[in-house]
Structure formats: structure tokens, C-alpha cells
Write a structure and sequence with these properties.
It contains 10 helices and 19 strands. It is an alpha+beta fold and 411 residues long. This is serine-type D-Ala-D-Ala carboxypeptidase.
Length: 411
């Protein structure tokens, strides 16, 4: 009888174990995140804040191929030389395919070469632009690296303006033309969201086709946009493909929908004959961002998170024994937003003075609100005095004594 009882208990235990194993979705973990990406390195970031929403080996350095050209394009646009004429050098004419086929000494308008650069990814056009804007390829690379540092992309190093695989010696150290998925996404964010030339960048990268001639009108050229992502997803606004033997297929693209700006960067996303891998990964990451994240404003946080007023010592008041306080206000700038996943919250804390000593000026900064997500500060807001307070001085003290003495005499 006991044996039968233990058999029943064991059977119930096994049934319970099997039933639990059949429902892995109930187990806490990262089941919602994109899986089985082809890319060796990938990143999805919030274009509004720059926050990384997803990464796979996102900080791993890899060659970036022709995605390099987004930096070449934005630097040329910001240089303001679109109506100038650039001449093809011998170095430019030697560039391998894919190329425009420019001859030594042939001249072009800079604005036309930008379409050649971004739509057809012509390597010789990149060199012509680099030499015109930077004086030389090396000089232009310095500008590229300077801009990368400015954007905060410390793990990026540019050697060429077109993304061809390259190495060089710098101060006894071998440097490789490379970036990370996270850095590449941040560079694209700069191009489409932050640069003063962002509108021109978007116009060029969204153009389906473009025709132009050399500056002398001797030859005509036709360019077709090879960024299939533009017609793949609603809201796609920009992108750049790339491929070299070392880099594999690479891609960086941007999408705007439902008030969200999402940017995807892929490095090492397959090798021939797997051109389609990058489109599969891009769609998967973009859909993840659209479905799992919602937009939140930092203005949603109540002002109660910091003091509305603080005490002021040695301040002039109507009465000698009255405690003085001063009101505070938030200095609001342009509204800032951030993408958050369900369950994520914005934490806000006040960092500043708890009391003041007169004199105090109106509009004086006495602290700041810090807004954090996952322990990282994404936004700060200055806290200012709403009014001023004068310091107690001898004339004021004398006046108060007279007032008090006068009241005593009357009594």
C-alpha cells in the first residue's frame, strides 16, 4: 500500500515538472529581446536620447566598410562648400570599384558628388570630397576622428573616407579603420537628429535617383539609391550599406514612427552570398523598438521631487524675528524625451544647496534635478531662485531698533 502511495506522489511530481517545463515563457529572463541575429555586432539606440536599447557585442570593434560614408557626407555638408567645384586627383582615379569612374583632372560640383557617395557608394567620389574639404585624405581623416570624439565615439578610428579596409601606424601603435555597433549608431544619430546639416543629409539619403554631369558638361552620370530599407518599413528615413572582405555586410539605418526615432547599426552581418541578412536583422531590431518601448517626457516628473523653497540666513525682512525663505523654480529648456520599456522608470533626485545666506540674486542657480534611468543620468535641469534677498546691513538694523524702541516708548 505504501509503495502505491509513493508511486502516486512521484507521478504527480513528474507531471508538475513536465507541465512547468512546457511553459518557458513564465520564466523571468530576456525572452522579449531579439534572438538569432545574423550580425556579429549589433545595436539599437533611441535617437531622442542616445540611449542603447539593445546591443549584441555592441562595444566590440570591427571594420565598418562603406557605412563610413555617413561621416564623410555630414562633414562635407557642414563645411558649406556644396556649390564649389572639386577636382579628381590621381589617387581618387585609382580607387577600386564601386566607383564613379572619374578621370584625373575631371571636375565636379561637390553637391553632385554627395549623391554619388550616398546613393551608389562610389569610392572615388569619397576621395575627391575628402581631398577638397580636408586638403588630403589624411587631413580629412583627422577631421573625421575629431568629429567622432566630439560625438563621444571613443572606440572609432577613421583612416579612409570611403571605408576600404585600412591600417596605419600612429605613435608606435597599429590603428585599424574600425568602429563599434554602438558608436556607428551614435554617428548616425548625429547625422539625422543633431547636426545643423541634418535636413540636407536626409534629403540626399532619401533620394530614389539622381542625374548629374561633370562641371564642364562633358559626361553625364546616373545614381540609384540602393538602400532597400527605405521601402521596407513605414517610417524609414535614412541608411547606408557597406561591404568589404574583412567587414562583411554592414548597415546603419534610421526610422521615425509614432514619435519615436530608432537607429540600428550592424557589423559583420554575413558574407557572400548572404546580402539579405542585414535586412532581416534591421527589421527585427526596429520592430523590437517599436513594440517594446514607449516615449516618456522628463517633464512628467513632479516638481515635488525637489524643495519648492529653502531658508535664507541674514536676509532683510519686514520683521526682525521672521524666518526668511526663498522660492525656487525649474529652468525648463526644450522638452526632452526618452524611450522606456515596460517596468522602467525615471528616477529624479535633487542635488544642491539646502539653505542660503543673503545676499541672493534672482535667477541664481542653487542646484539641479538629475533624471536617471538604470542608474545613468540622461537629463539635468537647473533649479533657480525665483526672487532675490538683500543682506542685513547697519542701516536696516538701526531702522528695526528705532521701530522697536518707538513701540516700547508708546507703551
Amino acid at each position: 500500500m505504501k509503495k502505491n502511495k509513493w508511486k502516486k506522489i512521484l507521478s504527480l511530481f513528474l507531471a508538475f515538472y513536465i507541465s512547468m517545463s512546457a511553459f518557458p515563457v513564465l520564466v523571468a529572463g530576456k525572452g522579449d529581446e531579439p534572438e538569432n541575429l545574423y550580425a556579429l555586432s549589433a545595436a539599437l539606440i533611441d535617437g531622442e536620447s542616445g540611449r542603447v536599447l539593445y546591443e549584441k557585442n555592441g562595444e566590440e570593434k570591427r571594420p565598418m566598410a562603406s557605412t563610413t560614408k555617413i561621416m564623410t557626407c555630414i562633414l562635407t555638408l557642414e563645411s558649406g562648400c556644396l556649390e564649389e567645384i572639386a577636382e579628381a586627383s590621381e589617387k581618387a582615379a585609382r580607387m577600386p570599384k564601386v566607383h564613379l569612374g572619374a578621370s584625373v583632372g575631371e571636375k565636379f560640383y561637390v553637391k553632385d558628388l554627395l549623391y554619388s557617395l550616398m546613393l551608389e557608394s562610389h569610392n572615388d567620389s569619397a576621395v575627391i570630397l575628402a581631398e577638397h574639404v580636408g586638403g588630403s585624405v589624411e587631413g580629412f581623416a583627422e577631421k573625421m576622428n575629431e568629429k567622432a570624439r566630439e560625438i563621444g565615439c571613443e572606440d572609432t578610428w577613421f583612416i579612409t573616407p570611403n571605408g576600404l579596409d585600412a591600417k596605419e601606424e600612429r605613435e608606435g601603435e597599429e590603428k585599424v579603420h574600425e568602429t563599434t555597433a554602438e558608436n556607428l549608431a551614435q554617428i548616425m544619430r548625429y547625422c539625422v537628429c543633431l547636426s545643423p546639416a541634418r535636413e540636407e543629409f536626409l534629403k540626399i539619403t532619401q533620394t530614389p535617383s539622381y542625374r548629374f554631369s561633370d562641371a564642364d558638361g562633358k559626361r553625364e552620370f546616373s545614381c540609384q539609391n540602393h538602400n532597400a530599407f527605405l521601402s521596407m518599413m513605414e517610417g524609414a528615413i535614412s541608411g547606408k550599406t557597406g561591404f568589404t572582405a574583412q567587414a562583411g555586410y554592414c548597415y546603419v539605418g534610421a526610422l521615425q514612427r509614432d514619435g519615436k526615432t530608432l537607429i540600428v547599426a550592424l557589423l559583420g552581418c554575413g558574407w557572400p552570398n548572404n546580402k539579405g541578412y542585414k535586412w532581416s536583422d534591421t527589421r527585427k531590431l526596429m520592430e523590437y523598438g517599436l513594440n517594446e518601448y514607449s516615449l516618456h517626457s522628463f517633464d512628467e516628473i513632479e516638481f515635488s521631487k525637489c524643495p519648492k523653497e529653502i531658508p535664507v540666513k541674514n536676509a532683510k525682512n519686514k520683521e526682525l524675528d521672521k524666518n526668511s525663505k526663498i522660492s525656487l523654480v525649474r529652468e525648463k529648456g526644450e522638452e526632452k524625451k526618452i524611450l522606456l520599456k515596460e517596468g522602467e522608470e525615471i528616477e529624479v533626485s535633487y542635488h544642491g544647496k539646502k539653505k542660503l545666506t543673503a545676499p541672493v540674486k534672482k535667477g541664481e542657480k542653487i542646484g539641479e534635478l538629475r533624471y536617471k534611468v538604470d542608474g545613468e543620468v540622461w537629463y539635468t535641469e537647473d533649479i533657480l531662485t525665483a526672487e532675490g534677498k538683500k543682506k542685513i546691513d547697519f542701516p536696516w538694523c538701526f531702522e528695526q531698533v528705532v521701530k522697536r524702541y518707538g513701540n516700547v516708548e508708546k507703551n
